[in-house]
Amino acid sequence: MKNKFITMIVVLALLFTGTAFVSADGETVYKVPVKVVKANDETQESMAKSAFDKTATVVENAGKFTYTIGHHEMKIMGSVDGIQKVFVYEGENKKELTLGEKTFEFTRNAKDAKVKLAVVVKAMGTESKDLLLVFDWAKATKEGNDQTGGEQPANWAKSEVDRAVAAGLIPQDLQNGYKKSITREEFCRLAIKMMEAKEGKNIDQILAAKGLEKASESTFTDCKTPAVLAAKSLGITDGTTATTFDPNALLNREQAAKFLSATAKACGQNIEATAHNYSDLSQISGWAKPYVGYVYNIGVMKGSDNKFSPKDGYQRQQAFMTMLRLFDALK
Q1: Are 185 and 228 in contact (CB under 8 A)?
Q2: Whole-prediction pTM value?
Q3: Is 25 helix (H, G, I), strand (E, B) or coil?
Q4: Where in the chain is the domain with CATH 2.60.40.1850?
């Protein structure tokens, strides 16, 4: 009876919040945008910024906050280099952290807006260089302790998600975590999977027919995923800088509209359009308006109550649904 009661409370919480799952032990996972700036001048970005992921994972449990920061190689001063050592400041003292292959972590007592680090990067000299991680908690999203993000799609999404799976549009390893926010890398994988299903060919054959090849593995220092490199060659995506892709960054709705439109263009469609007269049209970025207009015109993304909500997050299940709609629209 007690377990049933707890389950009921959790279900009600999901229904009313629609965003986060908080487990019985109170653990919550946040995805937080992070910038890397100079420690002595926060208006300037650190030279080491491209070595860090732009989204941090922060786990809150029992009043403690564990920050996990992704890192990778970067191009600096004409060479490819990465972080050799990392320290976190505790007052005036520096504590060396364990540097994993792709991440490092530290624990704080609060949702800190700024955390001072010191890093050693060979190309920047042998001495450690101070920098600040600036966390944008206003744009953080809650993921919760349930890292599956929901093993089944929501009722309103289930029919289209099931059709997308049946059509071969969803990679096997993405058929879970339906309520998790979709990442840039995952959306590229969806786009390529949809093109392969539409053409009945693998991506190498599709590229060859267009006189193209996958982008070189050296294109991005932080991502070697074949689907991302293919999407780059097809014009579906670009990097976030000249050398980085930021694969784990989460998409919002207007960014998803651009990805979907660019995928349609890669399939030979004319995507010229103007934005529908949404009541929140002024909140849609200027660069995004043509893409928002295109996906509206073909019935792929409509919004609700005449609002597009461009800066809202975009769940996996929503991405699956709209990729299916694009697949249908291109038949």
Answers
A1: yes
A2: 0.59
A3: coil
A4: 2-142
